Amino acid sequence: MSLIDGGAPSADWVAMDMEAMLRECDGLIASKDDQLRRLEGTIEALRGEMARATEERQQAVLARQKAEHVLHKVHAAIEEAKSLRASQGPGSSRLRIVPPASEPKPSHEDPTPSDSELADASAAPVRIEGSRSIAVMRVVGADPRRAWSTTEVAQLLEGEVKGAVRRTRFLLEALYRQSVLDKIYSPDGKRAYYRVAAAWEAA
């Protein structure tokens, strides 16, 4: 719609022009509303992706912290093992795994230490610390020629108390690593017995 050159707009013309403007505005508003809805959907999708990415990152951070902690423990255990091996000196690779089963009394075929072995045992006294370790040595040392099973020593120390064999085995192994006890295996290699290997004294 256009005005005749030099003519004044009539009321009808102005009304129709405003109606046209309203339709233009309505179309633009509807278009922008649709655009805003699409943008809001995109923003929600991005927020969801951000939330998932944040969660996955946090899980990765926690996993890394755990892996770092485990690695630190592994390195510490390796260093501890090296130190333990170094403290034992050369030729001390005698450690063997002993199954946690009740051992029967040794048979008469168990080897008996020679007089020279007993002489060597009395040459350099080993100082024993701890009341329980001293008690174990007193039991085993009561008969230096005898090979004692873990169960026998445990029964003399604690009777039938639960866990006595496990605790006693730990003490016997510790004393074995100090070279104050010898460890002897049954012919089938499944049972271990202990006897005095060196002179000792209470610290």
Query: What's the alpha carbon Rg, rounded to whole Å?
Result: 44 Å
Judged by helices, strands and strand pairing, the structural class is: mainly alpha
User: For the report, how would you describe the main beta sheet?
Assistant: 3 strands, antiparallel
In percent, how much strand structure appears in the residues?
Answer: 5-15%
Instruction: List the secondary-structure elements in sequence, H or E.
Output: HHEHEHHEEE
Number of beta-strand segments:
5
Mean pLDDT equals: 79
**Main β-sheet, spatial strand arrangement:** 2-4-3
How far apart the termini lie comes to 117 Å
Roughly how much helix do the residues carry, as a percent range? 55-70%
Task: Explain what this protein looks like in three dimensions.
Helix content is 59%, strand content 9%. It has 203 residues and is mainly α. The chain has a three-stranded antiparallel β-sheet with strand order 2-4-3. A two-stranded parallel sheet has the order 1-5. Helix 3 crosses helix 5 (164-177) and helix 4 (150-158) packs across helix 5 (164-177). Mean pLDDT is 79; it is low at 90-104.
Structure characteristics:
203 residues; 59% helix; 3-stranded antiparallel beta sheet; 5 helices; mainly alpha; two-stranded parallel ribbon
Give a brief outline of the structure.
This protein has 203 residues and is mainly α.
Secondary structure blueprint with pairings:
Layout: H1 11-88, H2 115-121, E1 126-128, H3 131-141, E2 148-149, H4 150-158, H5 164-177, E3 181-185, E4 192-196, E5 200-202
Parallel strand pairs: 1-5
Antiparallel strand pairs: 2-4, 3-4
Helix pairs in contact: 3-5, 4-5
